[in-house]
Design goal:
The chain is built from 10 helices and 7 strands. Helix content is 47%, strand content 20%. It has one domain: Vaccinia Virus protein VP39 (Rossmann fold), CATH 3.40.50.150. The longest helix is centred in the last third of the chain and has 15 residues. By secondary structure, it is an alpha/beta fold. Helix 3 packs parallel to helix 4. It has a 7-stranded mixed β-sheet, sandwiched between helices. The protein binds S-adenosylmethionine (SAM). The site of S-adenosylmethionine (SAM) has 19 residues, from helix 4, strand 2 and helix 6. S-adenosylmethionine (SAM) binds next to helix 4, strand 2 and helix 6.
Length: 215
């Protein structure tokens, strides 16, 4: 099921200005090698969001080869801040580090190689913006609940949590797959969490955007 009419999605994506060579190269390589990434429309949306929130500290959970990390690290750098990413796949983590270096972001961004469930509890402090981008990779309600808790704990009060792929290709609505049912359970959890005020953006595969209002 298309979340957004493909013609509309194509139209608004084509309105995103041409990317600089470093970002364009990551985008092309990800497309060619079937590496998941947010793509230009959502990449720029994350950038606008981070800039608007004046996020100095950004955490990304699920970095793949660093496409969204580049968008977010650029926004953090504008505020004199930095980005930390987490990526399980060693070759993707290494590629993300290389891509951040080519983009001139090594001084403000690093990608930790490891399992988010193990890395998140070891991180110091809280972040102005947390981007959770491995909902599709889990597809298991109990794991999603745990990961959500670990991520909320990392968001500063007044900060933002963005969770990608929450509509799970529409299966969060049709409920005809385990992944869709897990995404639906996650969405209800996010929507009802008293620590958060949340809106759901039907962009690409769906983004839940939450403001943390209480510890
Ligand atoms: C959707 S991709 C991330 C795309 C990236 N945010 C972008 O837009 O450029 C999700 C990534 O999460 C990674 N991943 C899956 N399970 C993980 C885990 N438990 N801990 C850390 N990373 C994980 C996968 O290897 C994959 O590269």
């Amino acid at each position: 099921m298309d979340i957004v009419n493909p013609l509309i999605e194509k139209y608004v994506t084509e309105l995103v200005p041409p990317r600089d060579p470093a970002l364009a190269a990551v985008e092309e390589a990800a497309q060619a090698n079937h590496v998941p990434m947010v793509g230009p429309l959502e990449g720029q949306a994350l950038y606008v969001l981070a800039r608007t929130a004046r996020a100095r500290t950004v955490l990304e959970v699920g970095s793949a080869t660093g496409y969204s990390a580049i968008w977010l690290a650029r926004a953090a750098r504008e505020q004199g801040g930095s980005l930390v990413g987490i990526e399980l796949d060693p070759s993707r983590q290494a590629e993300a580090e290389r891509n951040l270096a080519v983009a001139g972001l090594s001084d403000v961004a690093r990608i930790i190689r490891g399992d988010a469930f193990e890395v998140l509890p070891t991180l110091d402090g809280q972040f102005d913006l947390v981007f959770l981008d491995l909902v599709r990779q889990l597809g298991d309600e109990m794991k999603l609940r745990r990961l959500f808790e670990l991520c909320v704990a990392r968001v500063a009060v007044g900060g933002l949590l963005a969770v990608d792929n929450v509509l799970h290709g529409g299966e969060a609505v049709t409920l005809n797959t385990p992944g869709g049912r897990a995404a639906d359970a996650l969405n209800k959890l996010i929507a009802r969490d008293p620590r958060l005020v949340t809106t759901f953006l039907p962009m690409r595969d769906g983004v839940a955007l939450s403001l943390k209002i209480a510890p």
